[in-house]
């Protein structure tokens, strides 16, 4: 168990899967902080992700990671 007496700031970031064959993937958003993640996946398993700058992208849940 991790115990700290200092405040910890956890940030989720968008890391698109580089192995994805869909060339319309928004790689220009890689590494941006995530503001919100949708709950309902689309027909291929992606959810809507709202980035810190307001951009909305479709992403697999494993593409939103601690950063």
* Radius of gyration using CA atoms only: 14 Å
Order of helices and strands: EEEEE
What strand line-up does the widest sheet have?
2-3-4
| Mass-distribution shape | elongated
Number of helices: 0
Unreliable spans: none
Distance between the termini: 20 Å
Q: Given the helix and strand composition, which structural class is it? A: mainly beta
Helix content: under 10%
Overall number of strands: 5
Biased composition (Basic and acidic residues): 20-31
Region (Disordered): 20-41
Word description of this protein:
- The strands form 2 sheets. Strands 2-3-4 form a 3-stranded antiparallel β-sheet, with no helix packed on it.
- It has 67 residues and is mostly beta strands.
- Strand 3 (47-51) and strand 4 (56-59) form a beta hairpin.
- It has no helices and 5 strands.
- The chain has strands at residues 12-14, 34-37, 47-51, 56-59, 64-66.
- 7% of the residues are buried.
- The model has no long low-confidence stretch (mean pLDDT 84).
- The chain is elongated, with a radius of gyration of 14 Å.
- It has one domain (12-60).
- The two termini are 20 Å apart.
Tell me the layout of helices and strands.
Layout: E1 12-14, E2 34-37, E3 47-51, E4 56-59, E5 64-66
Antiparallel strand pairs: 1-5, 2-3, 3-4
Biased composition (Basic and acidic residues): 20-31
Region (Disordered): 20-41
Question: What keywords describe this structure?
Answer:
0% helix; mainly beta; 3-stranded antiparallel beta sheet; two-stranded antiparallel ribbon; elongated; 67 residues
